[in-house]
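Progress against Task 2.4 (sequence-to-structure conversion) is shown through the following example record, which the project officer requested during the mid-term review.
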Amino acid sequence: MISTIKCRLRSSLAWGLLMFIVAMTPSLATASGRDSVTSSTIEPGVTYLSILKEGPYTINVLVVDLSAKNLRIESYRPIGLVPTSQQAKRNDREDHRVVAAINADFFSFKLGWPVNNQIENGEFVLGTQTQRSHLVVDGRGKVHIERISFEGWLKSGAGKPYAISGINDVHRGDAVILHTSFSDTATRFNGSGKAFLLRLLNPVWSVCDTLRMVVIGNGTVDLSQIPSDQAAVWVGAGSSVSAAGEEMKSGDTVLVYLGIQPRLKDVKTVLGGVGMIVANGIPVGDSVNVKEKTNIAFLTARHPRTFVGFDRDTTKLFLCTVDGRQKSSIGMNFHEMADFLLSIGVWNAVNFDGGGSTTMVVQGKIVNSPSDKTGERPVANTLQVIRLGPPANAR
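Structure tokens generated for the chain above:
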């Protein structure tokens, strides 16, 4: 049965009332003038809102109850660029169902890689030195939004530490780069340097922890064929790091630290974006976001947008898209995203890639209207809502 309630959505009080009713009612529709909301519970703990607001704006929101024990928030990285709907399909399997997904980080069309850090199920997909805003989820399911950067080091068998500049990142002469099973042929061993194959001795990969690894070989390594319990380390020929290559001996045990700054514990999921939208219940100013290497035009222009945030007590996660470049929806700038998010109770929020990348998939179907004429755009990674175990009605 569908309940219908009329209210003015421009009022934050009305939005608070609406969200309370959404939490209590399986399905509802509200309308007032040109504004309307259609809501449905697609999974216990996951509510889907389809919103039409005066602007015009067409907005899709997923509200996820972070206290639900059978729900998990994951990042997903395919090889190369793959549409959001296909990424959701590839990561879907028995007792690990992809309830919903949105596109995530900005990316390089040339390399097919995201531009910021990514951690998937506690393992680095990409580690890079940047100070942009990232969504972080720890092992307890607690969410954070932080400006983070990769940090790491390798201690050779001789006991001397060398900084690791990145994971699956671009090679530089004065750099040590670690490659894992997420690596592929987009990043090649180029320039002068040496490569060594390592095997993980710890039970699992972990972030902000010291790992023990053993050197099992050197020479040419196929980046697309690195097993999940191995890694390849590339040591550049620059004067600051070349000694590490001389100290790597087959059979030696080396120590490897792979972490982030700030040092958060038990990190399971990280996805990068560009620009904070709301911080501690206050819209983030343009001058602050310029520090994330974006420009005022990007912040103030209306575009299709994908963005994610959480409420004050970090019990609910909000995955959002707003369509743009269409008669039915003009897109939003950062100020408009902030106003909308604050009206529905979001306390902290970060901006993901938008434009033609903006896509939301719910139960295998695209629910928004991607702006590219060719339809859904291939992207580098996604944020996914996962249901673990069988559906509620099967228990």
